[in-house]
Design brief:
The protein is an all-alpha fold and 208 residues long. It contains 11 helices and 2 strands; from the N terminus they run ββααααααααααα. InterPro entries: Tet_transcr_reg_TetR-rel_C_sf (IPR036271). This is Transcriptional regulator, TetR family. It comes from Demequina muriae.
Amino acid sequence: MRLPRFHRARPGNAVVVSDDDVLEAAVRVFVASPEASLADVGRHARVELREMRARFGTREAVIDRVIMRGARRIARGAVLEDGTPAEQIALLVARLWDDQEPVAPFITLGVRAHLRVPVEETLAPARALFADAVARGAHDGTLRADVSPRAVAWLIEQSVLDCLEALARGLMEDEDGRTFVMRQALATAGLGWTDAAAVTDAVTRRIS
């Protein structure tokens, strides 16, 4: 397991581990063992338990910070690439899935009641991109127009979160996660399953 980088904080030999490095260690620890303790995270980050408590408070606070950091990363990295509106949705969903699949166990820890609202607020830039693609698809008749693009975008976002949770709970053992979540998102956007499969296959070839 890769140990965190150390950053010198003052002259002499004293070094500290940054909060970001602790959170990186927390991801590895909790993915390997979702029931790991704050002390377990501290040992892997080379931070004493007393300092972990002073800096983060509790195990749950560390988990919350990791989840929110992941949401901010998604928001910063969300872009619409070239293609039809359906292809753009599939591409964005695929990028989100590839980014978040390694930390899917956090979803079960994870987008809990007290975090759902701040996570959704943080993901607003990604949701706006989905809404833009849905609106253009509704205008040209390729995507659903019976529900507002904003509502469809929210449903797509929730479908990604639901699929991550299903993966973390072991309910997708027989499915290719990325393919499944792209098809689910496209079905939510109004495509029939055969059209959703065709778009997904084309996008998969493009990014493979």
